[in-house]
Amino acid sequence: MSLGVGSSAVLVGGAAVAGWVDAVIGGGGLILIPLIMAVMPQLAPAVALATNKLAAVSGTASAAYTLTRKVDVDKRRLLVYVPVAMLCSGVGALAASMIAKEVMRPIVIVLMLFAGIFVALKPDFGEGESLDAPARVRRIITVVLVGCIAFYDGIFGPGTGMFLIMVFTGVLSQNFLASAALTKVVNTSTNVGALVVFIIHGQIWWQLGLLLAVANIAGAQLGARTVLGGGTKLIRYALLTMVVVMSCYLAKQQWG
Questions:
Q1: Where are the transmembrane segments (predicted)?
Q2: What pTM did the predictor assign?
């Protein structure tokens, strides 16, 4: 299978935009996956998903590197979150064929709308407050939720970054910027877990995936610097925007 120059240019541009969006708040897959399937309608959906995952993990990892160089991240938390995220995401990817996306979409739409309403009505959310519970309880809750979100990322995916930011902000005593940095590292882990499953099943178009990975990294680097420059206010607005966009996108898929 080969691509023309025009098709390649469209996909490379889309991958760069997706990398920027993903670095700022998450949801780059909403751009790149439909674009891959539109440019190459003959491509199997599993191959499109797997090829996008290769590009996404590259961009997310590069954004994680840039953000964690500027924002302090608790390394002890990563020692727990990273293996949990990789394992649960891999299990989710294996279970993807068992749970219909038509079942998942309404649940995700409701959760996103709830999250958006909560952030909109609570202006101080994202300023560093945390769940009113003992530290040990908050740590356990966070690990459980990271595992659930990672499983969801493997099985379906849209909104993973947003949900992780909400958990790290609401359960741990972190502001949006610190949560965004931690999210990128954990989201890289969820992508790796799912990517391993795709590699084992031979579903990646490597030539295209590596080309898109380069463009995704470029967009992600720009997005990471946008986050560092805009701070918590930018992330708050980006989160609310993504809630609306993703809810409309998933609703159109479900009922359109």
A1: 78-100, 106-125, 137-156, 234-251
A2: 0.84
Task: Quickly list DSSP for 214-234.
Answer: HHHHHHHHHHHHHHHHHHHHH
- Domain with 250 in it: 5-255
99: phi > 0 → left, psi -120 to 50 → alpha, else beta; which?
A: beta
Contact 46, 242 (CB under 8 A): no
- What gap in Å lies between CA 139 and CA 204, rounded to an integer? 36
Q: Is 74 left (phi over 0), alpha (psi -120 to 50) or beta?
A: beta
| Side chain identity, residue 46 | A
Q: How many domains, the chain?
A: 1
Sign of the CA dihedral running 50, 61, 153, 91: positive
The answer to whether the Cα torsion of 98, 100, 106, 111 is positive or negative is positive
Q: Which residue has the tokens 């949560």?
A: 179
b/e sequence 103-118, b meaning 16+ C-beta within 10 Å: ebbeebbebbeebbee
Angle of helix 5-24 versus helix 206-255 axis, rounded to 10? 70
> pLDDT of 229-251, one tens digit each?
987 788 888 888 888 887 888 78
Q: Which residues, 6+ apart, have CB-to-CB distance to 196 below 8 Å?
A: 90
Tell me: the pLDDT tens digits for 156-180? 777 788 889 889 988 887 888 889 9
